Amino acid sequence: MARKILFASLALAPAALAAHYVFHVNDTVLFVLAAIALIPLAWLIGEATEHVAEHTGPGVGGFFNASFGNAPELIIAIFAVSGGLPEVVRGSIIGSVISNLLLVLGLSMVAGGFGEIDRRSLFLQLGVIGIAILAFLIPAVPGWDGDPERDFLYVVTVPVATLLLLFYIGITVYNLRKHRATHVADAAAGAWSMRTAVIVLGIATVTTALVSEALVGSLEEFGHTVGISEFFIAIVIVAIVGNAAEHGGAIVVARRGKIKLATEIAISSAAQVAVFVAPVVALLSWAVGPGLPLSFRPVEMITLGLATVIVGLTILDGKSKRWEGWALVGVYSLMVCVFWLAGDR
């Protein structure tokens, strides 16, 4: 019954797009409609990813979900740069990493309960995030004093972003080869073909990007109406909306007992945002607007570092526990309160 409802609710996506591009409805109405429309799209991406994993294993399956799920994030960021919203872009990048590490991983553990996880693979992804944090400090620290948008900071950002992107390519090739070497393809009966699953992922991702763009376009006015700071909108709301696919996908597969795949999705997605989305947005920003320095705020860097350490301690024993999932969600809730109090720069 639930699957039938989710399939039927996929019709909300074209309705949201029509409301945005054709009827130009009120921003508050558009925000609610687009947010609801993202739920079945996230489920569909999770469904397709699970079928991909039947052919590739959880490691590569997690990579597929993170890749397709982060496409909307990248597109939203480019739109925000071209719209002159650099703080929204930076906030959404950090918020995406933190929400995947704490909220998505936590909810996946809650949904999946006790189970074995691939500690080695997850620690590799956390190490990637740790390296990204150190790299971010290079343009971020000078930005704590003076104009965070000054040209010098973008000049510093370009080599940092380039090295992070090259690092991402190298670690991705290594990780995929490792998973391919250890996984024996043995798809379960009833699994979609690899081609069908990838096509569904592609269509769902493009649709998710369009709906997410419509939602983000209404967020600024929505924030003014309800009195929320631009920083909070970026680091919490935009981050969660832009990562709806990973959020839904990880929880769906965790509920089906595939906690190893769910944790791969959550942490792989966080790592991809840090070493792929962030540098690509920075490098492409000059083509659509002013160059975007990765001059993150102190509150962003501190909370990102804490989230990484806390998740590392959580997965240290290589097991998923429901109470640890609740603890991660609790930590995320505390950080949301910090973001609310921090306000705009």
Q: SSE layout and pairings?
A:
Elements: H1 2-9, H2 12-21, H3 27-56, H4 58-82, H5 86-112, E1 115-116, H6 119-143, H7 151-182, H8 194-226, H9 230-242, H10 244-255, H11 259-288, H12 298-314, E2 319-320, H13 322-342
Antiparallel strand pairs: 1-2
Helix pairs in contact: 2-3, 2-8, 3-4, 3-8, 3-10, 4-5, 4-7, 4-8, 4-10, 4-11, 5-9, 5-10, 5-11, 5-12, 5-13, 6-7, 6-11, 6-12, 7-11, 8-9, 9-13, 10-11, 12-13
Plain-language structure description:
The structure is a single chain. A two-stranded antiparallel ribbon has the order 1-2. Helix 4 runs antiparallel to helix 10 and helix 5 (86-112) runs antiparallel to helix 11 (259-288). The chain is mostly helical and 345 residues long. It has helices spanning 2-9, 12-21, 27-56, 58-82, 86-112, 119-143, 151-182, 194-226, 230-242, 244-255, 259-288, 298-314, 322-342; strands spanning 115-116, 319-320. 54% of the residues are buried.
Mean of all residue-level pLDDT scores:
85
What is the overall shape? globular
Largest sheet: 2 strands, antiparallel
- Strand order within the widest sheet? 1-2
Using only CA atoms, what is the Rg?
19 Å
**What percent of residues adopt helix (DSSP H or I)?**
over 70%
| CA(first)-CA(last) distance | 47 Å
Strand content: under 5%
Count of strand segments: 2
Tally the structural domains.
1
Treating each run of at least 4 consecutive H or I residues as one helix, how many helices? 13
Low-confidence stretches: none
User: Structural class, judged by helices and strands?
Assistant: mainly alpha
Order of helices and strands: HHHHHEHHHHHHHEH
